[in-house]
Design goal:
Blueprint (H helix, E strand, L loop, with lengths): L3 E4 L3 E2 L12 H11 L5 E6 L2 E6 L1 H10 L3 E6 L4 H13 L6 H13 L4 H7 L4 H19 L9 H5 L6 H16 L6 H11 L15 E7 L2 E6 L2 H13 L11
Parallel strand pairs: 2-4, 3-5
Antiparallel strand pairs: 1-5, 3-4, 6-7
Helix pairs in contact: 1-2, 3-4, 4-6, 5-6, 8-9
């Protein structure tokens, strides 16, 4: 790809491009001063000037660095492609909230791109894109139930996938109570609490019980224990109680 050197003052910004200072902009300016501009910005000809299409952060960093003439990639695109360039540029900003990113992902998908296609376009992993979609799914479900979980980290909300709405709300309230009391709640804490909410707090390790019996799964939440003798049966019952399990005993004929 060939680049053209132009005066930075010949670049014009449109109203669709935000002028606020993104996180890390001054650091980017320092890197440009030290190493130069590694990835030229993209522009298109507009009269005797050039309209900025992609590279807003780099443009502002170049201004901060005091650069006068810069390399640019000049493209000849129509309005539809122009909007696509801007959308991709916006989604790569560092100061976006997860829900804003999700909305932009949905715009790209509405243009016929798959999740893998979106990931390729914005130079992110497929898992990164999928996490944004999962976050939005949980967030919007909670909002629909009257709970705004915007104060919870993205990774924490994603861990709630698979819970009912009521269980999600219980987890959000638990998180907020913990933060209010000064606790630091990690994603691992969320996973542990999720298991508790789902009634999975106790999961006995049958390997610790000993030998002399067989276990057969008879249903989604039931097991059949076969013992070699009554002594083994009571030993296993005792071990299960020590491990925190709840026992419901019935004797078959």
């Amino acid at each position: 790809m060939k680049y053209k050197i132009i005066d930075i003052d010949d670049i014009i910004l449109t109203r669709n491009i935000r002028d606020d200072e993104p996180v890390g902009l001054r650091e980017l300016a320092k890197n440009i001063e030290r190493y130069g501009l590694l990835h030229p910005i993209t522009v298109k000809k507009r009269g005797d000037k050039y309209e900025l299409i992609a590279g807003r952060r780099r443009y502002h960093a170049l201004m901060i660095a005091g650069e006068k003439r810069i390399p640019v990639n000049v493209v000849d695109i129509d309005r539809t492609e122009n909007n696509l360039y801007r959308l991709i540029e916006n989604i790569q900003r560092e100061n976006l909230r997860p829900l804003e990113i999700f909305n932009m992902i949905e715009e790209l998908r509405a243009r016929g791109l798959t999740i893998a296609g979106v990931a390729e376009k914005i130079n992110k992993s497929k898992a990164w894109v999928e996490n944004k979609i999962k976050y939005a799914s949980v967030y919007q479900e909670l909002v629909g139930a009257g709970v705004d979980a915007g104060d919870m980290p993205e990774g924490h909300l994603v861990k709630m996938i698979g819970l009912t709405t009521g269980e999600k709300i219980e987890l959000v309230n638990w998180y907020r109570e913990g933060i209010k009391s000064g606790k630091k709640i990690s994603q691992r804490d969320i996973i542990r609490k999720r298991k508790e909410v789902k009634g999975q707090r106790y999961k006995p390790d049958y390997n610790k019980i000993g030998a002399g019996f067989a276990i057969t799964k008879t249903g989604k939440r039931s097991l059949l224990l076969t013992f070699k003798d009554e002594r083994t049966m009571y030993r296993i019952f005792r071990k299960l109680k020590e491990m925190g399990g709840k026992l419901y005993y019935s004797e078959s004929a």
